[in-house]
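Example record for the data management plan.
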Amino acid sequence: MDIEVTTAPTKEEMDTIRNGIHAYNRQYIGEPAVKEDLRFSVLARDGHGTITGGINAVSFWGWLHIEILWVEEALRGTGLGSRLLFSAEEFALKHEFFNSRLETTDFQAKGFYERHGYKVYGVLEDFPEDYNLYYMTKSLK
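Corresponding structural encoding:
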């Protein structure tokens, strides 16, 4: 058996791994009611079409997972982040994903997410060093 580490896996290689775990998971949870790994982005653009903020997310098993939320520095505090978050949650609800989860750190947006109804359910200390990573969740129902 050969073991290989690659920083450039092909789509086929990644699909083989994904399909393998999906087949295993189906033994326990059956066929998902909605498409697995529904990836999407929410984009904010200025009048010139330049992206000034956005969210990258994935939804599966009834959950929205917000992977990244970013707003250009000059636009923070204007409500743009709230609008992006609301749009992602609304999209998830339309696709019958009724819960949301995310991770954030001390120096990122923990307070922002708390103001939007997210609760901490776990903490990973010293990630990155001298900071904490917070695992947060929210019911979208």
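Summary line stored alongside the record: The CA atoms of residues 94 and 132 lie 33 Å apart.
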